[in-house]
Amino acid sequence: MDKLLEVRNLKTYFHTQDGVVKAVDGVSYDVNKGETIALVGESGCGKTVSALSILRLVAEPAGKIEAGEILFDGIDLLKLTTEEMRKMRGAKISIIFQEPLTSLNPVLTIGRQISEGLEFHRNISLNEGLKEAVRLLQLVGIPHPERRIYDYPHQFSGGMRQRAMIAIAIACQPQLIIADEPTTVVDVTIQAQLLELIRNITKELNTALILITHNLGIVARYAHRVFVMYAGNIVERGSAMDVYHYPCHPYTAGLLTSVPRLDEPRKIRLIPIDGQPPDLIAPPIGCAFQSRCNYSIPKCQNEKPPLQEVAPNHYAACWVSQKDQRPWQKKSL
Amino acid sequence: MAIVSKAQTVPVRPHHSLWGDAFIRLRRNYFAMGGLAFILILALMAIFAPLITPYTFAEQHLDQILESPSWQHPMGTDQLGRDTFARLLYGARTSLMVGIFTQFIVLCIGLPIGAISGYAGGRTDNYIMRFVDVMYAFPDILLIILLRSVLGGSIYMIFLAIGLVAWVNIARLVRGQIMSLKSRDFVSAAKTMGGTGNYITWRHLLPNSLGPVIVSVTFNIPRAIFTEAALSYIGIGVKPPTPSWGAMIQDGFNLIFSKPYMLLFPAIALALLMLAFTFLGDGLRDALDPRLRH
Amino acid sequence: MLRFIVRRTLWLFLVLFVVLLITFVLMHLVPGGPWDREKALAPKVVEALNKRYGLDKPLWEQFVNYIWGVLHGDLGVSYSYSDRTITSILAHGIPKTATLGILAFIFALIVGVPSGVAAALKQNSAIDYSSVLFATIFASVPGFVLGILLMMIFSVVLHWLPTTGWGTFQQLLMPVFCLAALPAAQFARITRASTLEVIRQDYVRTARSKGLPESTIRVRHIFRNSLIPVITVAGPELANLITGSFIIENLFAIPGVGRLFVQGIFARDYTLIMGGILFYAIVIAILNLLVDILYAAIDPRIRYE
């Protein structure tokens, strides 16, 4: 398969008063054309920052991409000029943000906000852009789009706003869409609708998708491959099915037991992961998950485990797992 | 001392209360601290004026009229032979007193009215706000002039005239604060636990809206000082011989071509005092802004 | 929208009535009367004057008569400028006060808003620091002190500009600058703060993610939002400029409404005081109404109450 995006050894740090926060510290992943991958992890693990790094939208001057390569169709995005990068955003790569209310400009009409990207990338007039906006709103399932384009964001419901965000993201038919927890702030009933919508649209347009979520439960259904992030690093990667059924990192296993699963009997209790993620200013020397891990061995304290293949096409950064032991799998099965 | 340094070596970031945090941030702001220092030094000089200068503000030396600055009179003398430096020091008393006492009056009126309006809501709030609207329809400073004409020229009446007009802003601010706080969880919690209206207002709502009030008061002090100086400048401020920087500026203005320093000293003193309060106000606002809290 | 304007206009008349009532009461509480002169007038003369101007009638009747007059566009006759109507006195003063106020307002907007925006867009740069420093200085130094300092420099030392008077362009420069300094500083401070706030908003990031040019992001997404707070203070600022100009009018000897009003108070010229207050209250009310309309025009969230 053709590689569309390849992130290599990305390091994005934030320089704060208290020290350097290593939000993303040497992360690599790749997306094939038309493929959906999932970046999974708790809040603060660096998944959003790594996605924003692709678009070079990390809040400056505090945040800075320190090292790495982001190859998009073979071009290193980090080496582009500001102007070249601007032409990439929206046209080739677009993003759906988490908060549809604050992510839409309150004083511009929805139609305007959908059409403005088109106007610049396709060089078309506002009128043509609005016509296209009507078609896009229809596509994302908003009734009476020809009237709705003149509405302002506050006249839309939460779910409709997120549909409008999706319309903005697909406006220029990009090759890659990043969806940053697109369903966190909407009602549970609407979450599934939105995810289905995103899946259908990406399929139809043959767009690759990076789905960022903390919910491993939805990953198996929507993603081809999964990258689990913890404390600024990838700790496990593999096909969605493998990761879901045979987690090779105790953190992934913890994530799985902390969300409801559709394929398990209801009686199984949800088990939260105890403790807090480590301080990213001064990360521990060994495995970052070690202090919260029930299966740690002495080696975990002193040496950071590298990401290694533990099963065919299934990688994990865990000393225990690399010794072919998965005590957590037995427990969850 | 030893205990303090020990506490500082603890690697965990210390936890501070809102006020503690604000104080630390304020101390780091050199402009604000400079402003505060200037105000405090001026206040001390005004209080201990009799120890600093041998002259009083009213004492006339008719043989030493309109003298240029000298060792004897560091800022010269005015057309009645009064020492400008002494008048400047005693004038600082007037300015600072105007600043502080008007705000005292403003708080006495504005705080309860704003709190009642915000907490009671409904019809009470509606009537109070309509009255506030009427107050806003007046040109502030002209209403003060009118009140000053009614009340007379004693310094206390000037406080009252300014205070009677300036309370509106604080009332509006407190009302807004309380209305937004009223819907917050900790107030509902207090209500559920059986707190009554007055108790909730005084125990929970007012302390929480205190930050913006402090900032607003700090910004209003220089406005009051300015108002008094402006009134005295056009000749309807405090009655002579009570010294006022505004009146000194007016005296100097008549001699702008021949004795410019007479004008310069009070003008610069007034400008510096206002600047000091603005720096302090800016610093307080930045320090107390809860959005900056991490 | 129309209903809103009608309701506001009706409310405005009520407010003006109350303002006039309060002014009337306060005015008559001021000790002394319009006929107090250095040399006391004969009681007979005073009586005759009172009769002529209707001051012998009970206070409530005087007030009713005054309001009746105002409703017919008659603001009465001045007591201190013999035989001149208040309308004609105001007609002489208003153009000067309005010219000063509007010129200063435009100047303040042109200088204040861009410097606030520039400071915010280049936060922590030399531009930012100098803009903040100047804004702080001009926001604190009183206008008349500034006027005096300017006068010392440009009139006394350099002899470039005339100290006082009205009519020529040179005579306008210093008063307009002194009046504009404070609002310009306030516009700069507010614009800077609100722009800094808007820059951090999610929707600006969304605009960037669409690949819009930086200039479009600034004009369409940042300024439109960051100017909302500026508009809310613009009305009161203009009102302040027009009502607060009396000190500057005094300093530069400009015969505007402010100077007339102060003279009116000294002379207990009741009709002049009432006329002045009425003018100012109307200016304030109209500007507040304009702000509300403008506010609704720029921020769609306001329209649907």
Q: How far is it from the N-terminal to the C-terminal residue of chain C, by CA?
A: 10 Å
What's the overall average pLDDT of chain A, rounded?
86
Looking at CATH, the homologous superfamily of the largest domain in chain A is: P-loop containing nucleotide triphosphate hydrolases
Under the CATH scheme, the architecture of one domain in chain C is: Orthogonal Bundle
Number of helices of chain A: 14
Report the uncertain regions of chain C. Answer: none
Order of helices and strands of chain A: EEEHEEHEHHHHHEHEHEEHHHEEHH
CATH class category of the largest domain in chain A? Alpha Beta
Descriptive labels:
heterotrimer; A: 333 residues; alpha/beta; Rossmann fold; 2 domains; C: 305 residues; mainly alpha; MetI-like fold; 0% strand
Topology diagram in text:
The complex is a heterotrimer of chains A (333), B (294) and C (305).
Chain A (H helix, E strand, L loop, with lengths): L2 E14 L2 E14 L3 E5 L6 H9 L7 E10 L2 E2 L5 H7 L4 E4 L3 H4 L6 H13 L3 H14 L5 H4 L9 H13 L5 E5 L7 H18 L2 E6 L2 H7 L2 E6 L2 E7 H6 L4 H8 L40 H5 L5 E4 L2 E3 L2 H4 L4 H6 L1
Parallel strand pairs in A: 3-8, 3-9, 6-7, 7-8
Antiparallel strand pairs in A: 1-2, 1-4, 4-5, 9-10, 10-12, 11-12
Helix pairs in contact in A: 4-5, 4-7, 5-7, 7-8
Chain B lengths: L1 H7 L9 H11 L1 H18 L1 H4 L31 H37 L1 H16 L2 H12 L3 H28 L2 H8 L4 H12 L1 H24 L11 H9 L6 H29 L6
Chain C lengths: L1 H28 L13 H11 L5 H13 L14 H36 L4 H15 L2 H15 L11 H31 L2 H8 L4 H13 L1 H16 L2 H6 L5 H10 L3 H29 L1 H4 L2
Helix pairs in contact in C: 1-13, 4-5, 4-7, 4-10, 5-7, 6-7, 7-9, 7-10, 8-9, 10-13, 12-13
Describe the structure.
The complex is a heterotrimer of chains A (333), B (294) and C (305). With 333 residues, chain A is α/β, with parallel strands linked by helices. Chain A contains 14 helices and twelve strands. Chain A has two domains: 1-92 and 175-333, P-loop containing nucleotide triphosphate hydrolases (Rossmann fold), CATH 3.40.50.300; 103-173, no CATH class. In chain A, a hairpin with a 2-residue loop joins strand 1 and strand 2 (19-32). The model of chain A has no long low-confidence stretch (mean pLDDT 86). Chain B is mainly alpha-helical. Chain B contains 13 helices and no strands. Chain B is elongated. Chain B has helices at 2-8, 18-28, 30-47, 49-52, 84-120, 122-137, 140-151, 155-182, 185-192, 197-208, 210-233, 245-253, 260-288. Helices cover 73% and strands 0% of the residues of chain B. In chain B, helix 5 (84-120) packs antiparallel against helix 6 (122-137) and helix 8 (155-182) runs antiparallel to helix 11 (210-233). Chain C has a domain at 95-267: Orthogonal Bundle (MetI-like fold), CATH 1.10.3720.10. Helices cover 77% and strands 0% of the residues of chain C. Chain C has helices at residues 2-29, 43-53, 59-71, 86-121, 126-140, 143-157, 169-199, 202-209, 214-226, 228-243, 246-251, 257-266, 270-298, 300-303. In chain C, helix 1 (2-29) runs antiparallel to helix 13. Chain C starts with a helix and ends with a helix. Classes of the chains: A alpha/beta (333), B mainly alpha (294), C mainly alpha (305). Chains in contact: A-C, B-C. The B-C interface holds B 133-134, 136-142, 145-147, 149-150, 152, 222, 226, 229-230, 233-234, 236, 249, 253, 256-257, 260, 263-264, 267, 270-271, 274-275, 277-279, 282 and C 15-16, 18-19, 22-23, 26-27, 29-31, 136-137, 139-142, 144-145, 148-149, 151-152, 156, 163, 239-240, 243-244, 246-247, 250-251, 261-262, 265-266, 273, 276-277, 280-281, 284-285, 288.
